[in-house]
Amino acid sequence: MPLTSSMSWPALYTQLVGANRHATSLGKIWLSVLFIFRVMVLVVAAESVWGDEQSDFTCNTLQPGCENVCYDQFFPVSHIRLWCLQLVFVSTPTLLVAMYVAYRNHRDKRKLLQVCAFAKGQDEELETLKKRRLPIAGALWWTYACSLVFRLLFEAGFMYALYVVYDGFQMPRLVQCDQWPCPNLVDCFISRPTEKTIFTVFMATTSSICMVLNVAELVYLVIKAFTRDFPWVTQN
Amino acid sequence: MPLTPPAEPDPEPKMNWASFYAVISGVNRHSTGIGRIWLSVLFIFRILVLVVAAESVWGDEKSGFTCNTQQPGCNSVCYDHFFPISHIRLWALQLILVSTPALLVAMHVAHRRHVDKRLYKLSGRSNPKDLEQIKTQKMKITGALWWTYVISLLFRIIFEVTFMYVFYMIYPGYKMIRLVKCDSYPCPNTVDCFVSRPTEKTVFTVFMLAVSGVCILLNIAEVVFLLGKACSKHLHNAGDSTMGAWIQQKLSSF
């Protein structure tokens, strides 16, 4: 995991920054918050807090297999993996926008090639086509709004999943377990519970901030479309 | 004692701090001279030292924390009681939070460039060379950008001081003790627990706090410099007005 994650987070970043050109300012702020306060904190700090979660999970018994079974019962999916999945899912709707922009560019390029097949300034026009920034209107507006809605759904979904799986955002110090092969009810101790609680609350907070940014961006887009389609509303 | 793999392999955090550096140092072009010194101090004496040295000192903080008991779980619980959050994580969060106000300045500069581009296009000068010139031109720290810059400096100072305070609250005194006494459940009675590498940790804690203090001083100096520059510009511009003349007369009477 460590080697691939060092290769994949920067790759994801380059993909998203490319799609970001067509984002609103709130979208650009969202991308910075995502990468600095979530991906960076995850990789630089949180992964080392959870690094020894299984090796340091100790139960008050010598029975072989009891620790494994109890760990598996209380941690079906580790926080770190949930956050990685959340970040990957939350970033992908932006690729919808990138795909739509690529499709539009391809279509316009073909039209351009058909219209001025023998014109001289063709290469320059193709370059400007690639570099231009499309206004967020029409089908692009709908694609963008859909991507925002999907982002919100994924964020909320993952936060809810974390809350349900771990019964809240607090990590207990002690859990009691009586799965087979544990001989009876044993005490099991979780490593670094306070530090894990602090980071869970931090990641939940930044997730909420990202959700607020997405809602604000959606409201902004709706208002922009409204004022564009009904200009007489603002003229009064 | 089972061999635990290192919690964080080396190439990964360096790569991410390196991409962080790329993002933050882009702001450098629009900083004052003191701002550039601050950025260098931040990256060389704080981030580099954190990644290259401090992380290996704290690497075995949990595995090397041993209590004078064989009661399972006592080690974990006592460690958690005395170290709610590790120094390394606090420093990483501090460095990330302290660097981000610089992005406010970067966003403002990008916004200004966008506005200038629009003005150029409206006035008919949509020559690609002119538009390129807007991108590479260095913004003067005046007007709204001055305010954004000063606010970002104030936020930096507030974050630094807050983290130093949080540090002092969690770990009163900056010295790392060798021995802690612990009696949380399930420890059978008061047990002695020994912290690993306390002296080395004290040395690095003092070092990081000293550099943090230097950074605060640099930020304060930059605020004073910007205020001084703005004041002198105002006095110079208001030289003809009565208010300016009155201020100058009052100052010269000292």
Automatic annotation (TrEMBL), chain A:
What membrane topology does this protein have? Multi-pass membrane protein
Q: Which PROSITE patterns match?
A: CONNEXINS_1 (PS00407), CONNEXINS_2 (PS00408)
Question: Its Gene Ontology molecular function terms?
Answer: gap junction channel activity
Membrane in keyword set: yes
Q: Which residues form the Connexin cysteine-rich domain?
A: 154-221
Q: Name one GO cellular component term.
A: connexin complex
Keywords, ordered alphabetically? Cell junction, Cell membrane, Gap junction, Hearing, Membrane, Transmembrane, Transmembrane helix
An example GO biological process term is:
sensory perception of sound
Domain annotation Connexin N-terminal: ranges? 48-81
Top-rank taxon? Eukaryota
Q: Where are the transmembrane segments?
A: 29-46, 80-103, 139-166, 198-223
Localization per record: Cell junction, Gap junction; Cell membrane
Spell out the subunit comment: A connexon is composed of a hexamer of connexins.
Instruction: Tell me the protein family, please.
Output: Belongs to the connexin family.
Free-text function comment from the UniProt entry: One gap junction consists of a cluster of closely packed pairs of transmembrane channels, the connexons, through which materials of low MW diffuse from one cell to a neighboring cell.
Instruction: Write down what this protein is called.
Output: Gap junction protein
Classification from the root reads: Eukaryota, Metazoa, Chordata, Craniata, Vertebrata
UniProtKB/TrEMBL annotation, chain B:
Name the source's superkingdom.
Answer: Eukaryota
According to the entry, every stretch annotated as the Connexin cysteine-rich domain falls at: 159-226
Assembly mode: A connexon is composed of a hexamer of connexins.
The UniProt entry lists the main location of this chain as other
One BP term from GO: cell-cell signaling
Protein's job? One gap junction consists of a cluster of closely packed pairs of transmembrane channels, the connexons, through which materials of low MW diffuse from one cell to a neighboring cell.
Q: Which Pfam families match?
A: Connexin
Q: Which residues cross the membrane?
A: 37-54, 91-110, 144-171, 204-227
- Provide the Connexin N-terminal domain boundaries: 56-89
Task: Give any GO molecular function from the UniProt entry.
Answer: gap junction channel activity
What is the similarity comment for this entry? Belongs to the connexin family.
What is the protein name for this chain? Gap junction protein
Q: Does the keyword Transmembrane apply?
A: yes
Sorted alphabetically, the keyword list is: Cell junction, Cell membrane, Gap junction, Membrane, Transmembrane, Transmembrane helix
Q: PROSITE patterns given for it?
A: CONNEXINS_1, CONNEXINS_2
Q: How does it sit in the membrane?
A: Multi-pass membrane protein
